[in-house]
Structure formats: C-alpha cells, structure tokens
Predict the structure.
Amino acid sequence: MYGFKKKVYFAVAALLLAAPLLYTGCASSGDTAQTPVDKAEHSKTAAVQEEKAGATESSSAKKAGPEVAQAAIVKKKKKRKRRQRKSRYGENYFPNIELTNQDGKKLRFYDDLIKDKVVSINFIFTSCQNVCPLETARLREVYKLLEDRIGKDLFMYSITVDPARDTPEVLKGYMKKFDIGPGWQFLTGKKEDIDALRVKLGLYIKDLDEVLPDGQIDHNISLVMGNQKTGQWMKRSPYEDAKLLATMFGDWLTNWSNKNSAVGNADFRKSTGLAVNYSDGEFLYRTRCMTCHSLGRGDGIGPDLLGILQRRDREWLARWIMEPNVMIKEKDPIIMEMMKKYNDIAMPNLRLNKVDITNLFRFLESVESGYDDSAVK
Ligand code: HEC
C-alpha cells in the first residue's frame, strides 16, 4: 500500500517539478514562443486593430443610417464585454460570507479576502489532535519561504471548522504557539457559512460523519491555492514538499511575475530530492515528521530526534508516535514536561501502524551523525 502511494507521490512530484521546466523550455525555444512582452505587444496590436475595425464600422454605419449605426454600437459593446470576460469563479460563485480574523476584524470572504488576489486557503481547528498541526507546520514552511510577499501579493487564510471553540482570541493564541507572523490570517465565522464555503471550494466530504465522539472533527485536510482573477485553482496536500508548494503558490499562480523568486530559480539538476529512492521509513520521516522535527539540526516545532532510539525506551516511543493524543490525555509525565518546552503544541496522531513504526525506527537507526535535509529546507 505504502509502496504504491510512494510511487504515485514521486510520479506526481516529478511531473509537477518538471512542468515549469518544460514551460521555460517552450518559452525560450522555437519561433512561435511568446514571451510575456510578445504577448503584451500582441494584445496591444490586436486591440488597435479592433479599435480600427470599430472605427471603420461606425463611420461606414453613420453613412448607412441610424439602424445600422445602432447595430454597430451593440456589436462593439458586445466585443468589449467579451474582452473583459472574467473567470467564472467570481462573485456569483463564491459566497461573500462574513468572517472574523484573529484580531476581531470583520472581513467579507469574496470582497475582502479573495477578489483579484492569489490565495491559499485551508481549514483547521485548533484543538485538532490529528493532521491539522502538520498542515499548519507545512504551511508555516511555505510562509517562511515567501514571507516578504505574504499579505502583499500572496494571501494565506486558515479558516476554522470549529467556530464554537475557535474564537478570534483562541486563533490568535494558536498563531502565537506556531510563531506565525503577520500577513497570514486565521478566521472564524458562522458554522453554516463556513460549511457552505467548504462545499464551494471542493473541500467538503459529503456523507462523512464529521463530529467524532471525542470532540475531534474529521474533515478534508487538503488545501486550495488559486488566482481568483484568472480562475486557476488547485487542490494540494499538506504532505507535499514545502518548496514545491511555495513554487506553485508564489510562481505558477502569479505567472512567474516575481523575478526574485526564492524557489523558482532553483536548478532542477542540482536537486537531490527527486532522484533518490527513499526507503519506506525515510519517506515517512520526510513527509510526516520533518516539517516539525530535524535530525541533528536542532529543535524545530518539536525536539531534535537525533539519537532518540538511545534516549528513550522503544516501546514507549512506538506508542507515543502511534497514539500521542492518548498519552497526552493520560498525562504521561515525560510528555507533560516536554510539552511545556514546546509551546503546548500537541504532537499529532498521524495514524501510523506497527509496520510504519518498524520502518521509521530502521531509518532512524541508520542516521548516526545528522540528516541532510538541505534539498528541501
Ligand atoms: C506538528 C508538528 C509535529 C509533527 C508533524 C510531528 N511531531 Fe513529533 N513532536 C512534536 C512536538 C511539539 C513534540 C514535543 C511534545 C509535545 O509537545 O507534544 C514532539 C515529540 C516527539 C518525540 C519525543 C521526543 C523526545 O525527546 O522524547 C518523538 C519521538 C517524535 N515527536 C517523533 C515524531 C515522528 C516520528 C513524527 C512523524 C511520524 C512526528 N514526531 C511528527 C511535533 C510534531
């Protein structure tokens, strides 16, 4: 099962990384290629031609009498309208619901948050014991990569699916825990409005019984990134590599308009992340753990894991990685002590099984003096 997923993951990752290269390749070779300047010139010429056509039409129409003149005007108006045609994912598609951000500021979803903007949107809840903290941690990596653009030409929104508990103050506290700076907004609102929005964004799983007995909310953990103006929208997974997500968000969706892209100019040939055939354990570590942990580079959101197998009892470790939420509930003394140090961020339950743990341990054993994750971070 994992092997298959892994292959699919890499196939998708390889395709996604290759796409911009193919794109650049096309743009720089061949006579028919259009640079953005060519395109601008082209549309300018086209517009001039259209204007000219319109002018001839109306002057000849004037000669031909008022009815023909009227028809010419209607035709011209239609043409102008066609040129201004917008993405169908506009104000008639998205609900303009009222949301409140972490500072208590009221904002309209369409008018204030997405209209004419390039955005990333995901849904979380702050008491989540499963994947949401990983998703927040992954998006935090994306945020750090694009920090100077967030809130300027790129906008990030995390919306709660649990507005009853997640008040603006709670959201603010959550941001603080994860050390998230300005520009990325956390929002709450009316439950029914938020659910309707999730349906429109394709992030609502129909027929899923979302409310679990222990107060957890089972919800779609994908995120969407899009450019409202052009109507390009894509659904991504929080298990993806942060640099890849940052490239899609900061470069693809803005049509490579940022020439100083931190990640867009990376040389594919120098990437070590793709050609490597990871073991199952290393793959798990990279996709599930590395956003919060490192091996030999010091603490991140969670503690450095280098030498962890020597420091802790294996059975304790296996249980902790498989069901951290249960051990937190039991108030395991080692964990209680540790949580204080890590801003009370609860290590997520990532639903791993015993085979995953064996694979992870095998990988952790193989790392003796530090793990080079520079290809990604
Ligand atoms: C969202 C961030 C996050 C993710 C993802 C995450 N952890 Fe953690 N982890 C933590 C935090 C925070 C702690 C410290 C305890 C706490 O606050 O819950 C921790 C603690 C640990 C510890 C205990 C370390 C010690 O010194 O005893 C181990 C082991 C560990 N994590 C392994 C993993 C593994 C393996 C994965 C991937 C399968 C993983 N973690 C994924 C945040 C995370």
About this structure: The chain has four domains: 1-29, 33-84, 98-252, 280-376.
